[in-house]
From TrEMBL, chains A, B:
Organism, as annotated: Brevibacillus fortis
Keywords: DNA-binding, Transcription, Transcription regulation
Name listed for the protein in its UniProt record: TetR family transcriptional regulator
PROSITE patterns: HTH_TETR_2 (PS50977)
Lineage, broadest ranks: Bacteria, Bacillati, Bacillota, Bacilli, Bacillales
One family name in Pfam for this protein: TetR_C_41
DNA sequence: TTAACATACATACAGAATGTATGTAAAGTG
DNA sequence: CACTTTACATACATTCTGTATGTATGTTAA
């Protein structure tokens, strides 16, 4: 079983990301020691620093993988309808529910902005998981579904609202109930922007 | 000029909080070294650990002071109207604009949840700066101003939206312009919850 | 008023964690 | 087949938090 350098690299990085993702989400970034990560991944500090350069670099890789997973689910869910308004609502709810299910909220929403800085975090968020939201809103405004309003402002308001919703739901004892409450509230919230 | 223990304590703590607030907001929590903080405050590590117990303890004290400042401004602003609906809008805008002005967003919104944990951060936020939002919404619902909706859910949605708005505005080149856009958007957003 | 005590620090040190410099074996390349 | 690059391992330097201990000064009660 000979391995090419490329395969080896891919495999080592993947393993490190997996292990790090687990530890970052359970202990938080600050309390996860590189020493433990490499030990559990079966390599040494050398491998980690060779591929990721720093602890922050590793975190960024982990964050990207989490964002991508959620982004894919949102996209798939939104595509289930033809009506733009319905697509928007479906996408929002898909984001909230899939982010809640995923036990990586800490990486995605809590440590993310703090560790890599808000600007970088925002850029990554937009590229991976929030891209469609902005596009969807832009399209809807062009087609006259929305009242006149700054799309950038609206995008951030919605994004912030949903992120906080995810964290809140995760803290409540009855996820299903609070998810329903959030769904209702988001639907009403969006109603405010519907062109009359 | 003899100083009582109580005075001395008060003075040292205040000075440490001031210095720490400066460094936390400029360099971020992780990159602010206790050594530098105590040096700049003119005391030693002993004093810091005596009063605050840990770096996290110091941060929590700093966060509380920032939250209190903003909370006071929000309260004052909201009290300028008699109409509940107007009060709500005034309070929201006061929060956003005063948090934007304040150059401690990093402490308040970015490092806060990460350093002391989201649950603790939320509790502090509710006690200091977001308390009135929830109360205001509750009152308004009782008086029939709002559609039937979970107040908890709504509170978190609004809070999250505004926090994100603050960060976004801070990043834009023209604060005044983006603040206006956010104001419009928030007003529309709230409109969705108005009882018909 | 003075002995006993508590408080507010200072100092030195221990422990842990990140990052870096250097070495090495294997794969890739001309 | 020489030689270069890559993917690591290992040892070490640095830095930072937290703790243990010492001390001077203010406070309190007999």
């Amino acid at each position: 079983m000979k391995m090419s350098k490329a395969e080896q690299k891919q495999q080592t990085m993947q393993k490190l990301i997996e292990v790090a993702r687990e530890m970052f989400s359970k202990q938080g970034y600050a309390d996860a020691a590189m020493e433990d990560i490499v030990k559990q991944a079966g390599v040494t500090r050398g491998a980690l620093y060779h591929h990721f350069g720093s602890k922050e670099g590793l975190f960024q890789a982990v964050l990207a993988s989490v964002q991508k997973e959620i982004g894919d689910r949102v996209e798939a869910e939104a595509a289930k309808s033809e009506d733009p308004w319905q697509q928007l609502i479906l996408g929002c709810l898909a984001f909230v529910s899939s982010a809640v299910e995923h036990h990586n909220k800490r990486i995605l929403l809590i440590d993310g902005p703090s560790v890599i800085g808000w600007e970088t975090w925002r850029r990554m968020d937009e590229e991976n998981s929030m891209r469609h939201l902005r596009e969807q809103l832009l399209t809807m405004q062009e087609q006259g579904y929305l009242r006149p309003v700054s799309i950038d402002a609206l995008t951030h308001l919605l994004s912030g609202a949903m992120n906080e919703a995810v964290l809140w739901i995760s803290e409540t004892p009855d996820h299903e109930k609070s998810l329903k409450e959030i769904s209702t509230a988001i639907t009403l919230l969006l109603e405010g922007f519907r062109a009359k």
